Amino acid sequence: MTEPNSHKPPVPSPSPPPRAPIPQTPGPRASRLNQVFDQALARTLRANSYANFASCFPTPARHVPASLEGVWRQLNAKLEANAKAEFEDIIAERDAVAHLNELDRLVADARARREQAGEGEEKERIAPHTLGAEDLYKAHLTPYLQEAQSTLNARLEATHAENAELAQTVQKQRLEIERLLSNLGVVVSDIEGAATAASQFSKENHLRQDAIQMDEEVRAQSGL
């Protein structure tokens, strides 16, 4: 004789299953953030073209174009490397990829549940005590949906704030370029001033030698 409870199915756990781990591979929003940053950095570098750079320093561009182009390339390379490193540090520090992926999941989840709720509203209203277990379970999801919406709004605001910080970082990099260009202009002015002074000294020294030579010639003729 078999026991009556020997073939009972296992009772499911009342606790919800754990959430799947959030992938670190950039999703739609994280990929779009990287794309926006790359486009902004590319526009900044294009604005600092060699033609614009050389127009600020016509004398070196005319006499030492190769050296000036080397300075321009180093400046752009340093700007690009610093901007990318700082962007990657911000992404890692804020765990932006995981947060944006979670935001994608919440948006998709909220959209699917909103569609389900819209379909439910079209049905005829039924008294709660006549609903089945599954319908009651769905009805209890409303507070969770409201909480998810609040979380979604908060994370959207955080994303907007991070985008504003990135824009400020790009602006600071542009100001750094202008400062470097200004310092380079001062150095070039000093070099040109030194060259002018050297040329003037050489001319005055030549006149002094001519005067000494003429004085010696006059003395030689007087001795005769």
From TrEMBL:
Keywords assigned: Cell cycle, Cell division, Centromere, Chromosome, Coiled coil, Kinetochore, Mitosis, Nucleus
Bias type Pro residues, positions: 7-26
PANTHER family attached to this UniProt entry: POLYAMINE-MODULATED FACTOR 1
Localization per record: Chromosome, Centromere, Kinetochore; Nucleus
GO cellular component terms, semicolon-separated: MIS12/MIND type complex; nucleus
Region annotation (Disordered) ranges: 1-30
Keyword Cell division among record annotations: yes
Coiled coil start-end: 156-183
GO terms (BP aspect): cell division; chromosome segregation
InterPro entries recorded: PMF1/Nnf1
Tree of life domain: Eukaryota
Organism (species): Penicillium bovifimosum
UniProt protein name: MIND kinetochore complex component Nnf1
Pfam families documented for this protein: Nnf1
